[in-house]
Amino acid sequence: MRSAVVASLGLAVLVGLVAPPAQAEGGHRPPKTTTSWQDVKKPVAEGYGGAVSTVDLDASKAALGVLRRGGNAMDAAVAGAATLGVTEPYSAGLAGGGFIVYYDARSRRVTTIDGRETAPKAMTSTVFEGIPFADAVTSGLSVGVPGSVAQWDLALRRFGTLSLGEALRPAIDTAKNGFVVDQTFYDQTAQNAARFADFTSTAALYLPGGQPPPVGSVFRNPDLARTYTELATRGPSWVYGGDLGAEIVATVKKPPVTPGSTRVVRQGLMELSDLKAYRALERPPTKISYRGLDVYGMAPPSSGGSTVAEALNILEAVPSIGHRVGLHEYLEASRLSFADRNAYVGDPAYVDVPLDGLLSNGFAKERACLIGATALPNPALPGSPDGSYSRCSGSTPTGPAAAPDKAEGPETTHLVTTDRWGNVAAYNITIEQTGGAGIVVPGRGILLNNEMTDFTFGPAPGDPNLPAPGKRPRSSMAPTIVLKDGRPLLAVGSPGGATIITTVLQILVNRFDFGMTLPQAIAAPRASQRNTPTTQAEQAFIDRYGPQLTPLGHTFSLVPGPPVGEIGAATGLEFLGRGKIQAVAEPARRGGGSALVVSSSPGKGR
Questions:
Q1: pLDDT at residue 400 in the model
Q2: Model's pTM, two decimal places?
Q3: Where is this region: Disordered (predicted)?
C-alpha cells in the first residue's frame, strides 16, 4: 500500500498541477510604455550572455542593465538589491541585511558574504521577556545594526567591477523617477496601514492623503534618492559611524510617534558605537553531495544551508531503509531537520554549532531510520550529531524538543544573477517583517528593520538563538547554488520566513527527484513541515495530496500569511548547456516575478 501511495505522488501527478505561465500572469504590475519585450513582466526567459530573476520588473531591469554594460553577476546583484530597496521597500533596503552565496568563475569556488544584522551591545538575553511579539516588532527595540551597506561594499570590493556609487545609480534613478504601484505593493501597504499611521515619517511617505497609494499610480521616494546619492558620494562610513548612522540611532532611540497615537512604542538600544563596530563577513558555505551534485548554501548564523542540506542527506538515505522518495518522505525529512535546526543552530560566534555532524551522512542515515510508513509524532525530538551513529535498530532521538517557530509571512526577497563569464549570485535580502519595524528615518526614505525579533523570546535556557550583545539572530534565508562536475547547474532561493527552507528544499526535490523542469518545480503547490503538529500548505497542495497523505498521519492547514495560503516567492536560474541560461520567477505568487536574459541569441550577449 505504501509503494502505491508513493507512486501516486510522483512526477505525473505533480506536473499535472503546473499551469502554463501564460495562465498565471494576470494581476502583474502594469508595464510602462515601451517597445521592448523585456519591459513586460515574465516568469521565464531563456537566452545567453547573462540573466537575472527577481520578484520585480524594475529591479530585474536594473540588474540586467548592469550586465549589458559589462558588469558582472555581483555588480548586478548589488544593483538589483538596492533597487528592490525602492520598489520592494517592505522587504529590502539599506537599513536591513542579508546573505549572498556566490560562485566565482575564475577560481571555480563558492563563497558566501554574511551581511546579517547584529544586536546592539546593550542587548541582553531577557530583553524581550514579557513583551508581546507585535509590540516588539513595531518599536525601536526590534531594530538591529544594519548590514546591507557593509555587505554591498565588501561584495563589490571582493568580486565586483563597479564602485558602490556606480552600483547604486539604477536605484537612485528608480527612486527619483518612480515606479508603478501594483496590487502586491498596495496590499502590503494596506496590511501595515495602522502601524504606519502611528509614525509621522512613515505615514507621510507610504500613506499619502492617509491612504495607500492606488494601484496604477506612480510612487516616488525622493528622500531615498537623495540618501542613495549621498551614500554614493560619502561611502559606507557615512552609515557606520557617520551622520546617517547618527540619524538612524536617533530614530531608533526616539521613534517619531504620531501625536495622539495610543501605540506603546519602546525605544531602542542602538548606539553609534554599534554601527562603528559592524563588519560584513566572508564565510565558507555549507556543502553536501546530493544525487551526484554539489549543493552549496549559507552557513550559520543562517540555518538555511544546514537545514536544507540535512534534509537532502536524509532523503538520499531513504532508499537504504526500503522507501522511495515521495512527498511523505519530503515532509518527514523536513520535520527531522527542523528539530535539529531549532536545537543546535545559532550564531557560531556565540554557540558551538555542530555543523559537521549535522551535515554528515552518518547522522543523516540515523535520522532517516526514524521515517516509517506514517508520520512521526509531534514534535520530533532532535538527534545527537556527535559522530557516533547507530544502525536503524538502535536509532533513538535524544534531548528535549526546542521551541517551535512563530508564524512567519512572505517577508524578505531573493534574486539571482549570472553573467557572460559564468559567475553566479544567489542573494536573500531582508528587513524581516513585511514593513520592518514600521519606522521610516525622517527625511531619508528608509524603513528600519525589526531583525531582533528573529531571536528567541525567553525564557528558554540553552536555546542557541537567545539574544546577546553583538550577536546575529538565526535566519532561515537559504540562497543556494548547485554545481555539476564543478560548474554551475542551478541557483535558487525564496522569501518566506522559516518557510524559505522548505520552499528551497521542495524546489530541489521537485527538480532532482520528481524530474520537473525548473519552471514546473517553482510553480508547483507547496507544503511546509517545520516540526509542527500541522503541516502548513497551499490550498492546491491540500486539495491534490491531502486525501493521499492524511491516511499516513499528516494533517494540513493553510499557511496564515499574509497573504493567506501562499508560500514563498522563489527565483532561480538553470544552466541548460552550450551557454544557454534559463531564468525563472514565480508565475503568480506575490504578483509574479520578472526573469530576463541579456540576449535571446547566442553570441550577442558577449
A1: 59
A2: 0.92
A3: 380-412
